[in-house]
Amino acid sequence: MRQTLFLIVACFSASCAEKRELVDMNPFHAFADKCTGTGDPVKKTPFCYKGGATVLGMKEDVVVTIQSAEKVGKINQGTLAIDATGISPEHCKSLNYTKVSETDNKISFDQAKAAQCLSGTKAAAVYCSDQDAVQLHIQIPHLPVPDIAVTLAPAPC
User: Fold this and answer.
1) What is the per-residue pLDDT across 50-67, written as a single tens digit (0 to 9) for each?
2) Do 43 and 84 share a domain, yes or no?
């Protein structure tokens, strides 16, 4: 932690301005789990990923359910649900998603529809095929913190 804070402070100085683009300035990302690989999940739907985090004393658990999936060329597409429990229970059902196979691990879905059912919370997701995990990047509108990475592991639905 001390090294991370030193690196953040050091890169705000003029002496290392040219290196800023190489450093992730979000202090929460220093604690994020490793997320690598661009493959697709090889599972029969539905399948789930579960995890949670505590931020400023508030605990949230999240389950992402891949409800349907099909591969069309290099595009994996289908529907997913996001269910959060804890301090602010939220539920998004049947969000359409896409993921480009073999080149990207980003899971794209309708952010406006997700924000409506997640009370304005912004969520971005990536599939970590090397770890068989989903990593959510959550930005909570009423908390003055940058986005938080939460890793979800395979779980029974």
Assistant:
1) 999 887 787 889 999 999
2) yes
